[in-house]
Amino acid sequence: MLQGMFRSGELPAGERLAAADELFGRSVLPMRLVSQADGVFEATVRHVDLASMKVVELAATPAAMLRTPRLIRRADPEVLSVILSLNGGLVVSQSGRETEVGRDQLALYDSSLPFRIGVATGDGTTTVVSAHVPRAQMELPLAGLGRLLARPLPAGRGSGFGGLLTQLLTDVTGEPGDHRPVDLVRMGSIAHDLLTAVVAHHLDAETAVPDDARHRALLLRIDSFVRKQLHDPTLSPATIAAAHHISVGHLHRLFGPRGTTVAAWIRRQRLERARRDLADPALRELPVHRIATRWGFTGHSTFTRAFRAAYGTAPQDYRHQAAAAPGHE
């Protein structure tokens, strides 16, 4: 997938805003970029192409992105966009509404309607991440979409699909080179499903989400929940199903395509984290039974048997082997 970077610092101060404005005018969603502080304007822009979704990270001093009626008449890609701020200072205006978007929130906006997005509304630099998806690919009845535009929607930890979408988009725009092209394609598919789920949830139209997209999004929520609860020895298919308001049978059917049971997947996640801790020099003095308890195993012998079955060696022996490996400090 394509990635691109623009850095205003590589240009003379007097040319930076004009160059950034030209860049946004040629983007997948053409718009104007304006600033009252032309002489001191700074911006870094990174584009990541996820095939089904285009993602943009903008770090800028005070500026505004404008989608005007003239630009809409000239070209409309008919995309639905989502935007979030990593450090505050974001205001989205569309459809007669203006909303300040906090750090644990996101907002939607539509390319077919005029909008204004204010970035870095105070002093300093603000970093925002936006993503764009063709509305036709959303596979949702979007007649009621207008009531969601330019409204703050929850996107913090524990907020469901919005929180998962935020985590994924901020990961995508991490350090360049962290993801292989095939990884970005897969992440694009996941992000597309999550955005569909966010919109469906807030439109009260979950039943209109295609089964495959709905199941993938639900599995992502379950995976995140399990990883946060691995320390709890009472974690089980029953508690997972109850937390997600589904039956245990439905949960097992969701895991069917993975070729494993829910209990086996939980055990594998716990063993992997225990193995990581056993190889960690910083935890060398932590007894093996404490590591087992840390990851939800209720008995040392149970943990030892499971670890040996998975990795062919006892936990203590694995720790010694890891300590003796070259480069292990």
TL;DR?
The protein contains eleven helices and twelve strands.
Descriptive tags:
7-stranded antiparallel sheet, 40% helix, alpha+beta, globular, 20% strand, Arc Repressor Mutant, subunit A, 2 domains, 11 helices, 5-stranded antiparallel sheet, Jelly Rolls, 329 residues
3D structure, described in words:
The chain has 2 domains: 217 residues, Jelly Rolls, CATH 2.60.120; 95 residues, Arc Repressor Mutant, subunit A (Orthogonal Bundle). A 7-stranded antiparallel beta sheet has the order 1-3-4-11-6-9-12, sandwiched between helices. α3 runs antiparallel to α4, α4 packs across α5 and α6 packs across α7. The longest helix is centred in the middle third of the chain and has 22 residues. The relative contact order is 0.09. It is built from 11 helices and 12 strands. The mean pLDDT is 88. It starts with a strand and ends in a 5-residue tail after the last helix. The protein is α+β, with helices and mostly antiparallel strands. Helix content is 40%, strand content 20%.
What is the strand content? Answer: 15-25%
Find the structural class using helix and strand composition: alpha+beta
Shape: globular
Helix content: 25-40%
Any low-confidence stretches, pLDDT <50, length ≥5? none
Counted beta strands? 12
CATH architecture of the largest domain: Sandwich
Oligomer: single chain
Largest sheet: 7 strands, antiparallel
Q: What sequence of helices (H) and strands (E) makes up the elements? A: EHEEEEHEEEEEEEHHHHHHHHH
**CATH topology label of the largest domain:** Jelly Rolls
What is the CATH class name of the largest domain? Mainly Beta
The radius of gyration over CA amounts to: 24 Å
* Ends distance: 37 Å
Keywords: DNA-binding, Transcription, Transcription regulation
Organism: Actinacidiphila acididurans
Pfam families: AraC_binding_2, HTH_18
Domain HTH araC/xylS-type: 220-321
